[in-house]
Automatic annotation (TrEMBL):
<feature type="region of interest" description="Disordered">
    <location>
        <begin position="222"/>
        <end position="250"/>
    </location>
</feature>
<dbReference type="InterPro" id="IPR000276">
    <property type="entry name" value="GPCR_Rhodpsn"/>
</dbReference>
<keyword id="KW-0297">G-protein coupled receptor</keyword>
<keyword id="KW-0675">Receptor</keyword>
<feature type="transmembrane region" description="Helical">
    <location>
        <begin position="342"/>
        <end position="361"/>
    </location>
</feature>
<feature type="transmembrane region" description="Helical">
    <location>
        <begin position="390"/>
        <end position="409"/>
    </location>
</feature>
<feature type="domain" description="G-protein coupled receptors family 1 profile">
    <location>
        <begin position="39"/>
        <end position="406"/>
    </location>
</feature>
<dbReference type="GO" id="GO:0007218">
    <property type="term" value="P:neuropeptide signaling pathway"/>
</dbReference>
<feature type="transmembrane region" description="Helical">
    <location>
        <begin position="97"/>
        <end position="118"/>
    </location>
</feature>
<keyword id="KW-0812">Transmembrane</keyword>
<keyword id="KW-0807">Transducer</keyword>
<keyword id="KW-1003">Cell membrane</keyword>
<keyword id="KW-0472">Membrane</keyword>
<feature type="transmembrane region" description="Helical">
    <location>
        <begin position="26"/>
        <end position="47"/>
    </location>
</feature>
<feature type="transmembrane region" description="Helical">
    <location>
        <begin position="188"/>
        <end position="209"/>
    </location>
</feature>
<dbReference type="GO" id="GO:0005886">
    <property type="term" value="C:plasma membrane"/>
</dbReference>
<feature type="transmembrane region" description="Helical">
    <location>
        <begin position="139"/>
        <end position="162"/>
    </location>
</feature>
Amino acid sequence: MNATTEPSDLLQIANDKLIINALPNIVITILYLFLGIIGNTAIIYVYAFATKSNINNKYFILVLAIVDIIACVINCVFTIVLDFMQLTFTNAGFCKLLRVLCHVTALMSAFILLVIAIQRYLLVCRPLGRQMTPCLRKFFVVLSVIFSSILGFPAVIFYGIADVTHLGMNGTACKYIDKSVGSPELKIYNTIFMLTCIVGIIAVCVLYFKVVRRIHQQRDKFSKGRKSSKNEKDESTDFSTNDSEMQSESRLVDIINKENPEGSVKRKTFYNPFARFSSRSNKISHTEGTMLTNNEMPSETGLESNSSRSLDRNVKRKLSITATAKQRVRSKSKKIKESLKYHRFSLMFITITAVCFASYIPLRSLELMEVQDKDFKEKTFGNFLPLYRFLYTSYILNNIANPFIYGLFDKEFRKRLCWK
């Protein structure tokens, strides 16, 4: 082995040891990649082809799924490349390109979530006001791409091939270049970046705070409405009768001639449905009819006619009251179900936004530390580099968590996904 190749071989050996050390992170990243592709593809299939969900709900779901697939592939592939070339990364152009794409896709996902927060606010808090039209939705998507590109493109200036040292071996890696570390330009960029994130987080929190407050108000209102609907339904059943009772009441008074066993006096027995009336329950109680003699008995024709008309009016009145009450109950129930569906989607997007913010906290914290000290990783983590790599790539969870969140909140998504 000659002197010119020996340093290179030693560097490769050191790099191979780092690869072995990074194997847990590589396996996890590959798992992220498969989950992200399969999960977000399932989202696109279900919401684009298998469901009839409102376009207001599924439009940004599809956009977010497409962005998540792109971001998942780029970030996972780039992470695996970095793990395999921790000391031997030499292609500056490839490094800059991937860093810019990682920043742009991450920012675009965050901007889409901000737009979704605005949409949920309009739908829940101002349902009768102006809503997002198809053109306005597309405009916001384009605007998200533009803002993400503006904020992400400066990464091409600050990232590149930097010299690194590991156990006395000098190598190169894709990270902040040496002249950028601690520079005023990088500090200004990070300040603008962080301020944008803070403003976005505050805006999302304010919007969703109003959404959640409105949801609680409507749930209280619906809870009272359900009790009212139940009372109306109970009252309607007091005015209604079952089939056998209705048939009994709708029949004419049955006048039956019966002869006295002694044969002297004829008695006419008729069934009087109004013999007893319970004023407490407003229900007609069927009891045994009264017995009237010929002298007490009104004319058969008049009795039949009056009783028939009275029963018809009574039955029609009951049916009308029952139908009206049931219609009100069905109408209120339908409104409650539709409103609760909107609320489930709002809570679903709130959860997605919270997961997004939480997943980026470790990455931004590590990057802020590395900006101040290029040897921060080695000094802080030492032999715990796999932990560093895991925290550094935790932001990828944002691109793979959404399918699980949709499955948790959207019953139709679960149903279609399980082929039921």
